[in-house]
Amino acid sequence: VPTILSTCISKQQLQTVKDRFQAFLNGETQIVADEAFINAVQSYYEVFLRSDRVCRMVQSGGCSASDSREVFKKHIEKRVRSLPEIDGLSKETVLSSWMAKFDTIYRGEEDPRKHQQRMTASAATSLS
């Protein structure tokens, strides 16, 4: 049974994902992150999400959410291995934490009320 992660993403979904990562990088989310994670996301965003290659993969139907997740995981494994031990946390714990944060960014806001509040605030500021 195919999961939602294994289905190909559309150009619109890719743009939504790019927007979510840009919002995170702009500090517009509630996701708490340290500098190392932010740098990893910045690199992933610039090198992978914004690449012409990914756009071509999406256009040809050859890019899934799990592909994106796997690229991020490979990307951060190298980074985390090179980090000094952080407050006694194992590198596996750091990897798990970073992947959970990635998943949260990728999926976007889970609480529709937060989205509604943001839309209302956005509408209010555009009226003033």
Would you kindly provide a written description of the structure presented here, covering whatever features stand out?
InterPro entries: CAPS. One of its GO terms (biological process) is dense core granule exocytosis. By secondary structure, the protein is mostly helical. The chain has one domain. It contains 6 helices and no strands. Helix 1 runs antiparallel to helix 2 and helix 2 packs across helix 4. The longest helix has 18 residues. The chain is globular, with a radius of gyration of 16 Å. The mean pLDDT is 83.
Q: Structural class, judged by helices and strands?
A: mainly alpha
Overall mean pLDDT score? Answer: 83
The percent range for helix content is 55-70%
Please count the helical segments. 6
Measure the end-to-end span.
50 Å
Any idea what the radius of gyration is?
16 Å
Beta-strand content bin: under 5%
Largest sheet: none
Order of helices and strands: HHHHHH
Number of strands: 0
Poorly predicted residue ranges: none
Shape: globular
How many domains? Answer: 1
GO cellular component, one term: glutamatergic synapse
Biased composition (Polar residues): 118-128
Region (Disordered): 109-128
InterPro entries: CAPS
